[in-house]
Fold this protein.
Amino acid sequence: MNIFLNLARDIAELWQEYAGLYLTGIWNTLSLAVICTALGCIIGLLCGILNTIPYSKNDNILKRAVLKAIRVLIQIYVEVFRGTPMILQAVVIYYGLPYFTNYAMRFSNIWLCALLVVSINTGAYMAESVRGGIISIDPGQTEGAKAIGMTHWQTMLFVILPQALRNILPQIGNNLIINIKDTSVMSIIGFTEFFAVHKNVTGTTYLYFPSAAIEMAGYLTLTIVASFLLRMLEKKMDGSSSYELAEVDSLTMAAGTYKNPDKTNYFDERSREYKEDK
Amino acid sequence: MANEILQIHHLSKAFGHNIVLRDIDFTVEKGDVISIIGASGSGKSTLLRCINLLETPTSGEILYHGENVVGKKVNAPKYRSHVGMVFQSFNLFNNMTVLENCMVGQVQVLGRNKEDARKEAMYYLQKVGMAPYIHAKPRQISGGQKQRVAIARALAMNPEVLLFDEPTSALDPEMVGEVLSVMQTLAQEGMTMLVVTHEMAFARDVSSRVVYMNQGVICEQGAPQQIFGDPQRQETRDFLSRFRNA
Ligand SMILES: Nc1ncnc2c1ncn2[C@@H]1O[C@H](COP(=O)(O)OP(=O)(O)OP(=O)(O)O)[C@@H](O)[C@H]1O
Ligand SMILES: [Mg+2]
């Protein structure tokens, strides 16, 4: 019993002293994760769309070459950023920029670097998800859209992407939760997210366990709230499971018995012709 | 001749080494209701898909009001908006309601404003008896209802020709009738239609011309009375006898 009382006292002490730091850390972690998940989705969306532009043997060589090159580049991007640890990517980018520009350029703002690294990393994961989401929509709908004269882009925008996005929403949620946790590695380049606060605070107080307990509770709260909100969003996007019958005059239901009186259309023209024939 | 909407000349299509269509020639005039019949694999779907440029013909030409639409310079989407197509598997947009399905093409392709598009869509949805269901999503309605919505969606674009690829083959038997009756009404009202079908009664009673395809060629074509009553070719007789015995 005593031990828990001690823990509570230590936590209270830490909180009294460093609440401001912890809260700033939470805020930084949350904003970094949310912004980067959004940016990553945009990157992934672009890659996924570029990756699925159709081409056929009849297209000219230049178009085919460009599209093929795009696919290869995206593949390289995905492999590199999915296949290396984000903590390393952060170091490589943060120290690589000054190194390669002979110290003419460096990240003046640590936010900029962190945003860049996490977005690019998320984008690499989302690129594959989006591509999968797009090709999972049955090609019949694409043909249906083509058959009424919609272009590839119109089909993408109005038919395919809305469904693909709905289908990959769970993966977007996954990425957000992963980002909330994994942005902790950004402390390596000195970004003060939530976990960096723990390192700073324990450096002076040596209260490792009580601080870690605060961190655990903080991260868990963030991720649980995030997954709850995402679940709500999914429900909302699915719409209601039932529909209301529109009120119509029952006489108009049978095929062909209804004629819109105040408009001429194809059929009216036809029937006029028929009358003239007779 | 101003009445000719489509003229197909020497149309061929091969998938790799598999030659699916050979030297197809035929003409679609305004008001024609043409039934295309033939065994499975004879190339009926491929022919319709070529006409709608969903497949690129290997050679030959398709003249739409005298202009060749096969080739790179053609604006395929624009041409397709004049030549509607109804598929065996409906191909409705699952993310949209029935009404939205019938509006999106009008707004995006024809540039109509929403109000006009809605009116036009409602007119045709009423025609096919689907007006009460405008707020439903495709997954909430039956196969026959989906196909009627697909027909309304195609009609709302005011196409000059409608292509049907086995519109009733994916339907439960009790729903075939509702779709065929919509198609029959359209035919009587003068819509130009090309219908690939296994419904021999429809081909015989509704169409103005029947085309029998066999192994990628048009084997025989003529008035329904002639094809069903007095087929000239042995292949046609064999094919039809299978349906009579069934
Ligand atoms: N995309 C494709 N790639 C390769 N071969 C194809 C393709 N589409 C069709 N074929 C081939 O073309 C031939 C004709 O097919 P098609 O679908 O036009 O026949 P069909 O007359 O419509 O038959 P069914 O009555 O079964 O629908 C078949 O041998 C088929 O295997
Ligand atoms: Mg077929």
Remarks:
- The CA atoms of residues 122 and 131 of chain B lie 7 Å apart.
- The mean pLDDT of chain B is 93.
- Chain B touches chain A through 55 residues (CB under 8 Å).
- The longest helix of chain B spans residues 173-188.
